[in-house]
Amino acid sequence: MPASQRERHPRPAGPVPGLGQAEATLVEHYPRLVRLAYLILPPRLGRHRRVLAAHGVVQSALPARPSPARQGPVPVPGPRSEEAPALGWILRRVVGNALSYEHGAARWRRAVRPALPAVWGLRLTPRIGGAEELALEQQLATVPAAVRAAFVLRHLEGCTPDVAAELLAAAGAPDPAAALRDAERLGPRDGSRAGALLDSVEFDPCTVQARPTDLLRRRHWRRGGAAAALLVAVMLTVGQSARGPGAPDPTGRAAVAIPSVDAAALMRAPADAWQSSSRIDFTVWPARGALTGDRALLDRALRAWARPGPGVHVSAAPRTGTGPPAAAPQLLYAGRADDADVVLLYDGERVVRYAQTAGRPPELAFSRADNADVTTAAALVLTRTGRGTRFLLAPWVAESTTRDLLAPDTPARPLHTADDGVSDAVTPPGLGGPCSNWPALQLRSSERIAEKHAFLLTDLGGLSPVHLTYTPPPGGGAPARAPREATSAAALVSWAHTACALRSTAGGGVRAVNNWVFAQQQLPEGAGTAAWLCSRADTWNGPGRAVVRFQPPTTPAREPGTLIADARDTSYCSRFNQHILADTRWSSPSGAPYLLAAGSRAVTRISVTGQVRADVTGTTLAVKAAPDRSARLSASLSTGRTLGAVR
């Protein structure tokens, strides 16, 4: 329900409503309340568990017993009015329970989780929204639950700041004022657009898609249920006999039988699923490789995932869970490559690689893969050896080549790929040594996906190669430009400057990196045209890093230019923060010192105060200024806002 249509929220304080009145109010507003809980709950739960938890949070919001003030028959609620004390009380309960879920209230979880709606054999997920909804979901995942709650109350529920702060305080948020301030930096700059995004199908846990999980495994469990129960009984009897009568259980809990992981339960997509699907990601990868029928290998991989022993080397990208899958995973690959038996699995949120080489302990690697798309799900690292890196390419990749990012004028070279999608070994980038070359994959999608769709990927040490994009400088009067594939001549030249700087993001769980030329400036004294660049690295788990640089025309071909700012865990240069102002000191060919500044498209005026004073109309500024003269910069935006310089 759009915020504009929601009834005004009452203050959350007040007496406990009658049980009948509370139930009627909860049922009337149920979809609205469940959406609110879903948005506040931790995204790390995954979409399926968040759906169930959101319904459980709302269903547990009823009073524990009838209110003494409401004796006798409860009248049927009349039409909606400006005063709804029951709704305010339930909202506080829903927000408080959702906040408690993230903050580790173990007693609350023990009380609520058993009562959550139980779903066996199905995986429930909301429908997939568009790119804006995905970006907002990733941004919400980077902030605490109280900030998510503040953002949702303001933009979806339409609460005023005072009501939102009071509701957050009543729900147990530690610092409502700080949460509201942090929430102001979230979402698109258009507040009404934020409400529309939150009201989309992406965040609707009442309209879900149902898919099967573990059809074959359930059959095995049913057959083995009686035997498992007998085994548990025997183990308990033997244990009690060994400890003697009345001896305490050293584990502190009763023994639990854990069902065995069975390779027969693995999900496999049809070979042509990608050709008829509107969702192009790992869910439509078929199972490939010569060992997809090797039950012993698959069982070893699944057992290592479910319960890795001390002999299994486990690694994971930042903020990636290593726990067992919640349901039967999907098999992507099982085969032999570079003297190793390799299995690739996907559970809807993570890609897992199991590799076993003779004479070495097995390796288990985890990487986030939720909300992957046609580019970020186009390849996975299969093996890394001294000979190079082999990739498994997506079934929709029609052409594969490699190119050196440091040699933009050199044509791409063909990369041979076997029938099962395994590529020849590719020389890895110089992540640790001298940066003399930077190989990247240049892939082209099948025309069934998109015509003439080529894109760049590079290996930064994770299971998924990183997608490289480029945003060209603003054109006169043209609308804002979105990131595009980095295959044009200008994009390749830009990446030739910044490729070596990618080493600082290696191993950080990076999903994509975009080079945005947010301004171009004619330098004084006819010194040529300089570029102002913001390179933004987005991670799979949400946080981003923005590096701002100044590139005069004298910048060497493989150098990134002058570093202006390096902001981490920021929204700078993203779709949610598209305005930027930067400045630097520069010496002209004659040796004269200058203060230079440039802003993005919406900047209309740049002002300098302090020991240096200037005021110009436009997106760039150049003023003579001694290096020791202090200067404070600000910019006026076409929206009326004032912008400070990035630091």
Please give a structural write-up:
The chain is an alpha+beta fold and 647 residues long. Helix content is 24%, strand content 26%. The chain is built from 13 helices and 26 strands. Strands 10, 11, 12, 13, 14, 15, 16, 17, 18 and 19 form a ten-stranded mixed sheet that branches. Strands 3-7-6-5-4 form a five-stranded mixed sheet, with helices on one face. A four-stranded antiparallel sheet has the order 23-22-25-26, with no helix packed on it. Strand 13 and strand 14 form a beta hairpin. The longest helix is centred in the middle third of the chain and has 29 residues. The radius of gyration is 28 Å and the shape is flat.
Short account of what is shown:
By secondary structure, the chain is of the alpha+beta class.
Relative strand content: 25-35%
Summing up helix and strand content along with how strands pair, one would put the structural category as: alpha+beta
Q: Count of helical segments?
A: 13
**How large, in whole angstroms, is the Cα Rg?**
28 Å
* DSSP strand tally: 26
Q: Report low-confidence residues grouped into runs of 5 or more.
A: 1-5, 66-83, 104-114, 226-260
Mean pLDDT: 82
Q: Report how far apart the termini are.
A: 40 Å
Helix content: 10-25%
Biggest sheet overview: 10 strands, mixed
The geometry reads as flat
Describe the protein's topology:
Elements: H1 19-28, H2 30-40, H3 47-59, H4 85-102, H5 106-112, E1 122-126, H6 131-140, H7 145-155, H8 161-171, H9 176-183, H10 191-198, E2 208-212, H11 215-243, H12 295-306, E3 313-316, E4 330-337, E5 340-346, E6 350-357, E7 363-368, E8 379-385, E9 388-393, E10 397-404, E11 413-414, E12 439-445, E13 454-458, E14 466-471, E15 484-485, H13 489-498, E16 510-522, E17 529-539, E18 544-551, E19 562-568, E20 581-587, E21 593-599, E22 603-610, E23 614-617, E24 620-624, E25 631-637, E26 642-644
Parallel strand pairs: 3-7, 14-16
Antiparallel strand pairs: 1-2, 4-5, 5-6, 6-7, 8-9, 10-11, 10-12, 12-13, 13-14, 14-15, 16-17, 17-18, 18-19, 20-21, 21-24, 22-23, 22-25, 25-26
